[in-house]
Amino acid sequence: MSRSVLIALALAVAAASAAATVLIVKSSDGGKPALTEEQRSAREKFFGSNKELPPIKDGQEMRPRW
């Protein structure tokens, strides 16, 4: 085989693998439904809600390193 045939074959294999990767990623991403209100409340109960944390009192002051 000549060098140009090997390069063309390598490019064809790379293109085919890239196309297969794109198709696999696209197919697994499409069917995700949004969370229901019951699921959202259960998640907030388990992980905690998005409330602000209380300020730290008497903690070490963080200063820049420069």
From TrEMBL:
The keyword Oxidoreductase is assigned to this record: no
Coiled-coil ranges from the UniProt annotation: none
Signal peptide bounds: 1-18
Boundaries of every Type IV conjugative transfer protein TrbJ/K C-terminal domain copy: 1-66
Pfam families per the UniProt record, alphabetical: DUF2749
Record key words, sorted: Signal
NCBIfam families hit by this protein: TrbK_Ti (TIGR04361)
Protein name: Entry exclusion protein TrbK
Organism: Rhizobium chutanense
This protein's encoding gene: trbK
